[in-house]
Known about the structure:
Layout: H1 4-7, E1 11-17, H2 27-33, E2 39-43, H3 49-62, E3 80-86, H4 94-100, E4 104-110, H5 114-151, H6 157-160, H7 165-170, H8 176-193
Antiparallel strand pairs: 1-3, 1-4, 2-3
Helix pairs in contact: 3-5, 3-8, 5-8
Amino acid sequence: MSSLVDSFEDSTVLLLGNCNPNQFFTKKDIKKILPIKSSTFYSASGHHRREIHLLERALSIAHHTYPIRSHWLNSINVNCTGMVVLSPAVACNSFYLLKYHDMTVEGFNLHGTCIEELDKLLDQYEKCYRIHCSLNSWIQTARSNIQYLQKILINDQCVLSYDIAPLELLKDAYGMQAILDCVQQIQKWVDQYCWR
Length: 196
């Protein structure tokens, strides 16, 4: 698996929004503000788009107080147009914030296997969300099965007499604690690696 950490272990990463590379800073500009040796821009649709997407999803989940369906994650709250990879452990400063705050979605000081950890946390979130949705899906399937057997006049009492009401009472809470635990872990990851 090719990842950002494989190529840029111990890097500061800035997610950019509402701009294109021509509107953003030059290497010379950024070197005046931040103590860096190098900087490389990547488009959100180009190289490292997977890592950009992982960071966007983490921010979306961390900044919402309710569970987000995984297919909504792309359109909620975070819309990056690119990413700048800087030297390791670059600290944020007020000069950068004054000049480029509107263009910067978030920054992260990445090191070690933190992207792989995030990938694992996001996968756990999606699986727990599917667990939460699975009961409601099963309830809908059971209703559909009952309606179908009634329509074709087949009398299977195991299906027709199944009491869905107890499941209805559980559907909002089913798997919700697992989702909230996953959200908390993702928030902790974001807080730990967020640019300071």
